[in-house]
Amino acid sequence: MSTDIGPIVSTLRRHRTTAWLLVLEIALTCAIVCNAVFLIGQRLDRVNMPSGVAEQELVQIQLGDLAAGKDRYARAQEDMALLRQVPGVQSVAITNQVPFGGSSSNSNLRIDPSQHDPVANAATYLGENLPQTLGTRLVAGRKLAPGDYVNADVAVDALNRGRTEGLPTVAVITRALAERLWPGQEPLGRMVYLTDKAGVRVVGVLDTLVRPNAYRDATAQYAVILPLHMGADKDESYLLRTRPQDRQRVLAAAVAALHKADPQRVVTRKRTFAEVRQEFFRSDREMAGTLVGVCIALLTVTALGIVGLASFWVSQRRRTIGVRRALGATRADILRYFQTENFLLATAGIVLGMVLAYGLNLFLMAHYELPRLPIGYLPAGALALWLLGQLAVLGPALRAAEVPPVVATRSA
Amino acid sequence: MFGYYLQLALRSLGRNRVLTTLMVLALALGIGACITTLAVLRLLSGDPLPGRSAQLYYPQIDPYPKDGYVPGESKPQENLTWVDANELFAAHRAQRQALVALGSAKIQPRDAGGRPFFGDAVMTTAEFLPMVGAPFRYGGAWSAADDAAGARVVVIAGFLNQKLFGGANSVGRTLRLNGHDFRVVGVLDRFSPQPRFYAINLGRSYGDGDGVFLPLRAGRAVKLDPYSVSCWEAADIEHLETAPCMWLGLWVELPDAAAVANYKRFLDGYVREQIARGRFHRTDTALPDLMQWLRDENVVPDDARLQAGLAFGFLLICVTNTIGLLLAKCLRRSREIGVRRALGATRGAIFGQFMVEAAIVGLAGGLLGLVFAELGLWGIRHQPAEYAELARLDLSMFVFTFIVALLSALVAGLLPAWRACAVAPAPQLKSA
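Output (structure tokens, whole complex):
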């Protein structure tokens, strides 16, 4: 192989422009594919973000608001009692928001009411029966008990008047949030403040619970649950836990039961939690799909380019090949010649491509808040392009190897 | 002469059918990808109100508390509180002006039975519809007196009129909104600015447009809640009029630069006055025009830009590919070129012949690229994004496709053609 390199380089020097074009094409492909594969990885990581809830067992139902004059709190209790009767329902919760639901209600949390800046911003789940229904595990402390609960309107009124009676006094928080508020310390029994007056004592720590608008991994699990009775209203949802195979049936039966109780109410949303996740990450999935398509198209075009050029070179050098064969070169020698040539071109393209890939990544980092391209992508990209080049050149090279020595004796 | 080049080019392309197909296909893929992503970008960055957008401005101030405020490092807020919106509105410093909030109304036809349904409802003031040039089919907008009185009147969109009243003139008929009777005073013709600029910060961006438009006070009186409410401290969102929450947009019409400067001075003055009264702590204000406001709101998602960038990278590779293949082909035809030159063809003639060949590849690539672009857009229309249905090729994109195709092919053909016309005839004629 090494003996071939000298003649190959001198041949390529005579086809400088064409060789450079091929190198350039391989380099551009390398740069774009490395970054695209990196982007695909990023998107897939996001799509697979853990929620910490029993996703395969949950369904959500959201209703329009009640007619004026009805007691929303009584209605919520009636609805939940009704939903518990639906066959297959294991647990029912009412909540102001759902994990990965998109729109969210959040609080700025302080660990000392006089603190100037909040320590963390956390999704504030309000409602009943949440950890049990969502299926998130309590890792320390106790559950929220019936005695902890207050009506939401009483709490809001107290907040407006700046009074503390009527506000909830306890909360459960996620482990990630506890670690953010008091790194390395025991969170149970500590006070966390939602305003300068409204402080709640942490009585329980949840393993995991993702926020409705989880956009960044670092803060995705910052969530707190406050013990509030919520009224039946257009912003509140019922969450039902059931067996995975019963979800569709339970959803239909639950909606029918609610309609039967009050034909005037409008169901604004009914979906399984799998659909919630699907909708939340839709654009990421689409983008990953587009990127995969672009990578395939790029690699195909580049491969076809290599096939095309190599075919031309083979037919252009038929006489030379014939002469070499007549002078004793074997078929394997000819095959190896073209393979080595392609390897050299691919290597030049890859080296240039690495630099371009790095530059492209810097550009993307500056404009799209992307992390740095991990160094591991570069050798993987190089390997892929070497393989692609060898595969693409194989056909033309085999055809070159078939050129009989007798060609040397014919006039062109 | 051109006819002869065409004949030569077609013969040459026909001789290497596989290669020609490859070149056309690669170019078409690149062009198709570019045009698809450009059509989406154009759709997303389009002007929702051509001819009027330059005179519509969106005043912004910042009622946030002092906490964490570093002058010069914060931006004014997207929406206004009820108090500030009404103060600015009442000052009436613009030619026309309107407050806007967006919510979901339970709609039920008065006479017809059937289930009520929810639709987007714009709570606004009298001058909004005339100011944005909404065309009426029947009736017209309500008056400023209706605004002040919180009159139960409503303007409905054409599609809703079709659905509820079968397209008949429904002015004077009654519609139940959130369980209360509203009198129809106007029916719109097709009105759906894309994006829905007035709703972007209020929870909606693209789509058919809104079903009902009603006076702000009347909407609030029937408990129509805005989609987007942002509060800077714990608040009772049942009483938005007194809560420390922002949920209203104000649009003002300012005809010229002097009026804009005047309004900005007025806005700064308002903020200084509020600071003096102890209500405000932050001095930042802004008065973007409609298109600037859309840019501020990042209406074009990063993903769409990234896709367009990728598509252009792809086209670049396809063009490089085509150059390489055309060049290889042309070098192989050195003998033919030598013969033509020896028989009297000028360098210009050879150059022209090869450029015609490249142009044919370009046109074929463009035609096929158009098919790919239509396919791509068809794919996008079947995605569930809010803007998806609007993704189409218009005439200008159509023409643009061909310009891109031809330019790419001509650029690709330039180097091979130049190399071809540089071939010296004599050495080629000697027996190789």
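Residues 2-48+283-409 of chain A form one domain.
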